[in-house]
Amino acid sequence: MRIHDTSREPLKWIVAWIALASGLLPAGCNKTDGKQTAAPIAQEVATVTVRPQQAVLTTELPGRTSAYRIAEVRPQVNGIIQKRLFVEGSEVKAGQLLYQIDPAPFRAALENAMAALGKAEANLPALRSKAERYKEALVDKAVSQQDYDDAASAMKQSEADIQSWKAMVDAARINLGYTRITAPISGRIGKSNVTEGALATAHQPTALTTIQQMDPIHVDVFQATAELLRLKRRLEDRRLTTTGSKQNKVKLLLEDGSAYPMEGTLQFRDVSVDPTTGSVILRIVFPNPKGTLLPGMYVRAVVTEGVNEKAILIPQQAVARDPKGNPMTLIVDGSGKVTQRMLNLDRAIGDKWLVTSGVAPGDRVIVEGMQKVRPGASVKEVPFDAGGEPGAKSKSPTRPAGGTSGGK
Fold first, then answer.
1. CB-count exposure of residue 75 (10 Å: 0-12, 13-18, 19+)
2. Residues near 351 by Cβ (< 8 Å), separated by ≥ 6?
3. Which of 184, 199, 277, 293 is the most buried (most CB within 10 A)?
């Protein structure tokens, strides 16, 4: 009888599984190797082609507003203030009566001077007739030379007295007029520093009140001399051209960032430099019919420098920074590969950078997809859609949902 040995069956099945696994391993390894050696897929990027264009260059300068004209009202005679005839903070006109000083003493002085003048004028005819008679009598030796000289001297003395009293009358009349304190200019009047019954002293150091003309109004801004020299060099090198009558037009930004609705006119540049700040003052005149601008307000003036006829502008999101903070961008060369360019930037104009060097007309600058490519990589270009909304689907599938790619 033949006995069946069951102890060897597990070993037989193990050997069979090992043989089967050995036959499958080469096929799996070859498949993995095939994936590693597959050609990389070219990333899609959105690009814009650099083209020269006209750009109006402006600069923002800080400054403050000041009244167009300021008049500090002071008394010119001594006296007691009887009335105040204006409302504080209101608009007044030139020549409007503001204060009334007690005129009684000055009216009396005028009347006294006029009376003395009348007395002198009354004596003159008699003295003139006497001098003429003595002159005729002197020919006939009827009077002495001394008598004639005394008569002629008395007549001349009377004439001089008349001139003196006329001057006194004029002075008294002027002082009487000074008791009416009027507005020297039109504008908005401030608070009154005195009340009725206060003693006014001629040419006192403290003003009774102040009037400020605020329509139009001055805006004084400060421009660094370095910026002024740079602007002159650009104009001399013909990199900038003037804009004619618009060159002197200035826009204004208020303290809250809003734009002032009316344009101003550049009046002059100061001829001296402030040694403490190294800047010159530019004075601009703005219309202010509604009184929006008040003296002492902080503002920013947008001054036109000129026009760059061949400006190179690229979107701000196409510019990134290296670890040292230097601006750079990526472009696509003629072979469809990415190249890095270092840039020199002048200023931001809207949502674009004005580039002075680094890119040239005809270069294709990558605007979207910068994070997914590196210099030397091959890419597939699609036009940049400047009007696309963040998160919306565009021609470039490399734009991530929820925002645009590329650093500013």
1. buried
2. 315, 316
3. 293
In this structure, what token pair is assigned to residue 250? 């200035």
Report which of 383, 407, 400 is spatially closest to residue 45, judged by C-alpha positions. 383
Token code pair at residue 219: 């805006």
Tell me the C-alpha distance between 271 and 281, whole Å: 9
Q: What is the pLDDT of residue 194?
A: 94
Judged on CB neighbours under 10 Å (0-12, 13-18, 19+), 231 is middle
**What is the rounded distance in angstroms from the CA atom of residue 355 to the CA atom of residue 348?**
9
Instruction: Of 304, 291, 300, give the one whose Cα is nearest residue 220.
Output: 300
Q: Nearest to residue 384, comparing CAs of 398, 371, 401?
A: 398
Per-residue confidence at 245, pLDDT binned at 50, 70, 90? low
Ramachandran angles phi, psi of 272, nearest 5°: -125, 155
Q: Distance between CA atoms of 384 and 407, rounded to whole angstroms?
A: 15
Task: Please report, as a single letter, which amino acid is at residue 67.
Answer: A
**Tokens, residue 207:** 């003003």
CA 312/CA 352 separation, integer angstroms = 10
Q: Which residues of 326-343 are buried (b: 16+ CB within 10 A; e: fewer)?
A: ebebbbbeeeeebbebeb
What does DSSP say about strands 180-182 and 97-101: parallel, antiparallel, or unpaired?
A: antiparallel
Read off the pLDDT of residues 42-88 as tens digits, 9 standing for 90 and up: 888 999 999 998 888 888 889 999 999 999 999 999 999 999 999 99
All structural domains of the chain, each given as residue ranges with its CATH number in brackets, are 45-55+310-383 (2.40.420.20), 57-67+213-309 (2.40.30.170), 75-101+185-206 (2.40.50.100), 104-178 (1.10.287)
Rg (CA), the chain: 47
* Cβ neighbours of residue 265 closer than 8 Å, sequence gap 6 or more: 248, 249, 250, 284, 285
